[in-house]
Amino acid sequence: MTELSHRSRFRRRHIGALAAGATSLALLASFVATPATAVTTVPTSNAAWQIHDSARPGLDTGSIRAINDSRVDGYGNIFVKVVDSTSPPLMNGQMMRGFGLTFDGVGTFSSTNSVPMGEVAVTRRIDLGAASEAARFFDTFTNTSTSPVTVEVSFGGALGYGSGAQQGTVAATTNGDTAIGGEDSWVVVAQPGTNTRPIGTVLGTPAPFDGAIVRTGNQERNPFETPLVTVGHEANFYGFINSISLAPGETQSLLRYVHAGSTGAGAVADASADLAAIASAPDLTGLGAAEVCTIANWDLPEDGCADAPAVELPPLPAPQPTTTTIKYDVVGKSIAQLQADMELGVVTSEEITQAYLDRIAAYDGGPFGFNTFITVAPDALDQARAADAKRAAGETGELLGIPMGIKDIYDTYDMPTTGGSAALEGWTPAEDSYQVAKLREAGAVILGKTNLSEWANSGSRSESGYGQTWNALAPSKTSFGSSGGSAVALAASLAAGTMGTQTGVSLYAPATGSSMTMFRGTDGMASTRGVMPLTYGQDYAGPIARTVTDLAFILNATTGTDPGELLTAQADAHRPEDWTEFLEVDALEGKRVGFIPSSFVSGFADDDTGSAMLASLSELESAGATLVEMGNPPSAGSAPSVNGWALYISQQQSFPFPNSSTLKADERVLPYNRGTDNTGGAVVPPPTDQQIQARIDARQQSKDRIAQWMDAADVDFVVYAGFLSDIYNNDGNSNQHSSDRATGVPTSNYGVPTVVVPMGANGHGYPMALQIVGRAWDDAAVLGAGYALEQRVQGQLTSQFAPPLTVIGDDGEVIPPAAEQPALAHTGSESQPIAIVSLALLGAGLLLAVGATARRRQRS
C-alpha cells in the first residue's frame, strides 16, 4: 500500500452531502430514474465512440462499447474492491454499473446516481470533446463510514482477442519500452499492420509520485488477483490498478484519458505524441475546483484547494431488500425437490412463489441486479393459491404449483410480450402461445417474462430495451443470449424452471454460462406457435432447467403435435408418453459416442477449457460408453426461407405494426438492431402450407445427412463442448468478447436433438458443459444419455452472489437458516467462488415421492 504524502492528502476534500457522521448507505436518498433512449454514439473529428450509458440497453458502466476501426471491445470500465473491510460487500471486486449516466447531447456523460461498493460511494463522469480523439474519465470514491477505508480500482478492458493480427499489444510507453509499470504515465496498444486505430491510455503522474498505478491486472479475470500477462490471448485484457486510502467522509478521484489514434503509417508515433501532450498538461475543463482538488493520481498544483468547496455527489439508490418472511429456502432447489416438499405438506406453492418474488426484489434490480425479468406476473400469488387449492382437492402433477419464468418472446394473454423491444412495450397478445397454455394446463405458476436479447438477435449477450442481463456465477460477465434472462433466473434461484428459445446458440450458450441444463429437440418436437420468430423452422422453443429430471417434467407438459402448427405434425409419433421413463442411470452403457478432436480446440483462446472438456470425455467411458473419433459432419445444405414474422403477425388478433420491417424500423428499437428486417414496407402475406412444407422437407435432408454420417461411424451420439474458452465481460461488442462457442455443433443448423450437461469448472473457475447430440427423433434417448452423464458427474455450479435471504418471523425476530448452504469452493485465481451442487437427491426415492414414473432398469 502506498502511503499518501501530506501534499496529496491536502488536496482531498471531505464532502458535505456524505459527511463523516453517515454510518450507513441506507440513510441516503433513493434511486434516481434513468432515461430510456438508446445506447449513445458520439462522433469526434474522425471517429465514432459508443458509450455504455444508462440509455437502452442500460448497461450503464461508462465503458466504451466500440470505436470504429479499432479493436476496442468494452474498454474504460472500472472494477472496485474494498480491501480492508471486515464485512466485504456482496459484489466486492466486480465491475461497477448503475451510475445513471446521462448524456448532455454534446460530449459529457454524468452520474445521476452514486453507486455503493460497501461503504464507498462511486460516481463517474466522461467527457468527449468534438475536436479531440480522447475521452476523459473522472471517477470519484467517497468513504461514507466512520472508519478509514482502502479501495483498489482497476481501469481497462479488452483491446483485442487471440493473437496475430487481432491481438492488441503494447506498442509504446512513456519510457520507450513495451513493459507497463508505475513509471509510465501513458501507454499505446495497437494491432499489427496499419488498418486499425492504436488506443492510448493516459494513467496520470508516474512514480515516484505516490498516486501512480501500483500494478497491472487482467481486466477479464479478477484484475486484483490475476496479473496482466504479455503473451497469449489474455495479454489483450488490460487493467491499470490504483490504490487509494480514504478517511471517514473523504472523497478522492482518479482521472484517466483514453485516446483513439488514426489508421495508417505513423499512427503509433502520432498517438504517442498526443498522449505525451495530455500527460504534461491534462485538460481539466469543466471540472470544478473541488473536483480537481480530489484527484489522487496526478501531481497537480494545490492553489485554492484549502478553500475549495465540498464536492456534492448525486444520491445513492435505496438499498435492495434482503429479507423474506418465508422460512422455506428455495435456493438451489430443483422442481423435483419442490414438488416432493409440496406433496409432503412441507411447503405450499404460495410460499414457494412468495420466496421467489422476494428474491427477485432482492437480486434482480438496483445497480448490481441481474436483470432477468422484464415483467413479473401481478397475479403470481393468485396462481399459486389456485394450485394449492387443486392439490388440496386431490390433484397432483409434476408442475403443479411450480413457478416458471417464460422468455419474453412467448405470447402470454395476461402479460405484455415485447420480444425484448421497447417498441412493443405494453402490447399484450389475446392468447397464450401453445406451450405456455400447456404449462398452465399442467398447473405451473407463470411467474413472469424473462429478459433476452432484443428479437433474440444475439447469442453473445442478452441486451434488450429493458436492460442487459448479468451472469449469476460471475457477476461482471455476460449471461449469453438470447435466453440469458431464463438461464440466470435459474442460476440465481429466482424461478424453479424457465422456457427459452434457440435458433443458433440461444439455449445452449446461456445454459452453459449458468451451469444449467437445457434440451433442444428435433425440429417440430415442440410447437413454436405464439413464439416470436427469428428463423422459422430452425427456431426451437424449449426448457432450461436445473436438472435433466426437471427437463423431463417440462417436456411432459410442453411437447407434442400442435394442430395449429404444421411443423409439429410428426411429434406425437415420436414423443414418449412419459419422458421420465428414459431417465436411466445406465443409459450410456454399451453406447458408442462420437467426438471430433478439432472441435475441442479454440480458434483464439488459450486457456484450458477445450483440453479440459476433451479430457472429460473419460466420464463417458466410465459410464460404459465407447469413444469413437470422427471427422467433421457433412454440410447442412440450404432450405427455402419462410417469413416467420408474417406468419406470426397473421395469427395475432391485434398487432401494433403491419409488418416486421415497420416494427424493426421503430426508433425505440436498439440502434444496432434498428432496420435489420426489410420487407420494403409492404404487408407480406403469411406463408402457405406448401411453402412451410417445402422448408420442412429441405430441413429433413439435413437430418438425413447427419444420420448417414453417424451411421457410417456406427455411433449412437456425438458430443461437443459447450464453450471452448473462459467467459468474458458483459460490456463488449464482438461475438469473441463473450466466449469461444465455435464448436461446430450441428444441432440448430440440422434440427437434431441436443441436451446440455454441466461438467464443473475449468481451471479459471468458469462453467463447462458437454452437449450430447443424436439423430432426428432420438430425443428421448438423448435426454436419457444426458441424465446418465449428469448422475455420474454431478458437475453443476452454483452462485455465491445470490445467497439465501434473511428470514424474519412474525414477531420480527431473525430466524437462522434451516440448513447450511453448500460449501463454496474458490477455484483457481478467479474471484467468482463456485460450488459443486450434489444431485444425490434425484434418485429413485425422491422421484417416486413426487409421483414420477421414472424407472431405473438395470441391465444384467
| Radius of gyration, taken over Cα atoms and rounded to an integer in Å | 27 Å
Mean pLDDT comes to: 90
Query: How many strands, which pairing sense, and closed or not: the largest β-sheet?
Result: 11 strands, mixed
Helix content, binned percent: 10-25%
Give the strand order, joined by hyphens, for the main sheet. Answer: 18-20-19-23-25-24-29-30-28-26-27
From the N-terminal CA to the C-terminal CA, the straight-line distance is 66 Å
Taken from the alpha-carbon principal axes, the silhouette is: globular
Which percent range describes the beta-strand content?
A: 15-25%
Question: Number of helical runs?
Answer: 19
- Structural class from helices and strands? alpha+beta
Number of strands: 34
Enumerate the spans where pLDDT stays under 50 for 5 or more consecutive residues: 1-37, 819-860
InterPro entries: Amidase_dom, AS_sf, TAT_signal
Signal peptide: 1-38
Domain Amidase: 351-783
GO molecular function: amidase activity
In short:
It is built from 19 helices and 34 strands. The chain has 860 residues and is of the alpha+beta class.
Indicate the topology:
Blueprint: H1 6-11, E1 40-43, E2 48-51, E3 64-67, E4 75-82, E5 102-103, E6 108-110, E7 115-117, E8 120-128, E9 134-143, E10 149-158, E11 169-173, E12 186-190, E13 199-202, E14 215-218, E15 237-246, E16 251-260, H2 267-280, H3 289-292, E17 323-324, H4 335-343, H5 349-363, E18 373-376, H6 380-392, E19 403-407, H7 434-441, E20 445-450, E21 463-464, E22 467-468, H8 484-491, E23 497-502, H9 508-513, E24 517-520, E25 540-545, H10 548-558, H11 571-574, E26 592-595, H12 609-615, H13 618-622, E27 626-629, H14 644-650, H15 660-664, H16 689-713, E28 717-721, H17 747-750, E29 754-761, E30 767-773, H18 779-793, E31 797-798, E32 806-808, E33 814-815, E34 835-836, H19 844-849
Parallel strand pairs: 17-32, 19-20, 19-23, 26-27, 26-28
Antiparallel strand pairs: 1-2, 2-3, 4-10, 5-6, 6-8, 7-8, 8-9, 9-16, 10-15, 11-12, 12-13, 13-16, 14-15, 18-20, 21-22, 23-25, 24-25, 24-29, 28-30, 29-30, 31-34, 32-33
Helix pairs in contact: 5-6
